[in-house]
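Example complex used in Figure S2.
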Amino acid sequence: MPIDQTRKQIADAAVEAVFGIRLTTDALPGEPASAAELREKLMTQAFADSWTRTALDQKTRSLITVAVIATLGSDRELRAHVGGALKLGATPDELVDLFIHLGAYIGAPRAGAGWAVASEVLVKHAKRTKDASQ
Amino acid sequence: MPIDQTRKQIADAAVEAVFGIRLTTDALPGEPASAAELREKLMTQAFADSWTRTALDQKTRSLITVAVIATLGSDRELRAHVGGALKLGATPDELVDLFIHLGAYIGAPRAGAGWAVASEVLVKHAKRTKDASQ
Amino acid sequence: MPIDQTRKQIADAAVEAVFGIRLTTDALPGEPASAAELREKLMTQAFADSWTRTALDQKTRSLITVAVIATLGSDRELRAHVGGALKLGATPDELVDLFIHLGAYIGAPRAGAGWAVASEVLVKHAKRTKDASQ
Amino acid sequence: MPIDQTRKQIADAAVEAVFGIRLTTDALPGEPASAAELREKLMTQAFADSWTRTALDQKTRSLITVAVIATLGSDRELRAHVGGALKLGATPDELVDLFIHLGAYIGAPRAGAGWAVASEVLVKHAKRTKDASQ
Amino acid sequence: MPIDQTRKQIADAAVEAVFGIRLTTDALPGEPASAAELREKLMTQAFADSWTRTALDQKTRSLITVAVIATLGSDRELRAHVGGALKLGATPDELVDLFIHLGAYIGAPRAGAGWAVASEVLVKHAKRTKDASQ
Amino acid sequence: MPIDQTRKQIADAAVEAVFGIRLTTDALPGEPASAAELREKLMTQAFADSWTRTALDQKTRSLITVAVIATLGSDRELRAHVGGALKLGATPDELVDLFIHLGAYIGAPRAGAGWAVASEVLVKHAKRTKDASQ
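Predicted assembly (804 residues):
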């Protein structure tokens, strides 16, 4: 079934709250038109159906997301969600604790690989924060 | 290298804070004596090295643990940690939010299988709470 | 956001077309009321958002589902979807070909474990068909 | 045991039918000579033992392959098999449906990562088709 | 392509060397006849193509097999291969070392779940050995 | 709990025995200071708690590590540990046998992807050995 526009708008707002940007779901040139529906569904599945809920606060949900995506090993998504976690109020020390926990629960290779991605985001973030304060 | 007794005692205390019980690490009859070292290492890796940290609070760490173990699909550990999450102050509604999130991030089959395990723990917990209040 | 009733009804119809049954999404006694929303979301994510599409035919989508769930190793879901595949017109020989393919692509242990589940469904199905024809 | 030449030739033909190219299995300079046997075994395992079967048609087997490899997250193999799927008659819209299905069954991060790879192949394919028709 | 009888016989002999038993590959009543080919392929893929090689010794290959299957989480296969490892000369202490290593590399939950399976095999083996010596 | 210096030194020595180098665990500029503790924990978990054990010899443990990390799909760690395996006495032919085994047990795509990484290490190693002997 098609994505209704209300779900799409709700997802857009949730994406903006997490990442600080709008994500386009348009099909790229060369993709079939239906690729837009694919992007809408992946986006609403996460951002209309889950990120809009209120029993968990957004920072906790964000930390859970980082942990799960590091377990799956999806680096591009991990990069985005570490940035999201910082935006939603997680501290670098909380992220260190999270990856120490992953070391115990998913093993050193995957936890280390995830930390390498997270670290890049933290280092850029520290630089931007420092530059902004000068 | 052998587990030093301080690490072991710290892990014992952390296990008790999460699960409300002491875990034995003794070798079973028929196992080699070194099986005790295996159990100590698995326990200290998680409970001395990670659960003792303080940047993340214990309830958040517990919710992260539930999410990661559901992603790995280890049912017995999941059962224990859903109980731990309730003990550390997570509510059933927070656990529902967590598994809705997993539906989006790891897919319906694994999220549904994880919820089946979590649900059993919640149902028993509700029954115990009800019995205790009568 | 809540599941709207149209999505729910569309998912109900798609579930019935695949499995021949209605699935309840009600919360169990002892679960929080929000568990119904979790079940609705897992169901609509798959059955309103994907099974209703028409570029792939239902039998092909069903075979893909069996292959993916065997790769994930979710036995309960696998059992249901092997039954669904038979209902949607897949033959036992097609399922054998699928698991031979999985042997090459995900390795013998997972393919063999998946076949053990699929075989149980086929054997029951063969027995039912035979009984019905007597 | 060594690969017999008949199996090797059957696999070569099946590879050519799927990808439109011959794959060499020769050892690279610096690899041990036995690396050729490794490549032959990986190739015959898939292409002599499975792709030669006839209960599933090749297009369906190809779509199943794309779904399974996206679930495993092996990008290089995914790229090759999305190309193979197009060669065997799958349409871009069928691939969109497949990745929408993966969104529901393996979660948005892995489905999105897989689509990013598939999309590159589709975009190049569209460009080549357009250039060829001018 | 069909399994040739030479490959099948070589695999039979390798299975017997690892597990001490013959495995039937016959189709079960209610399975299609082609299920025999599936079982033959899964068996020859491992036992004709790999276990017959000689660069690695059988005990080392067996320990590697145990480690990989514990990582995949396939319990039934793990049980068989822990038995195989003991038959091929691995000691219980070597298996303890292997699962301590898995604790570090795949995390405590999966290593602990794998050890639970391995431990059952060791305990039965110790009992059998003790009974036999009385 | 903090890493005690004895565990750290033991891990340093074990890392040097496997990889021939010292690994720094210092926090990078822009990372929080606690990142050093994360690196120490990931390192001691593997190198103080497991690599120091003596029931398995180091070459066997190294081959097991390569197999497990190829199964997890962590390329950077795989590269390091293939180098480690060569340093600890594994031969290129043994690594070929290992990846043929993985073909059967984890499937051709992951075994092939792992071999692509291992092959790069072997080719460089062959070149260095050849250069050194001239």
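The CA atoms of residues 71 and 106 of chain F lie 7 Å apart. Chain F has a mean pLDDT of 95.
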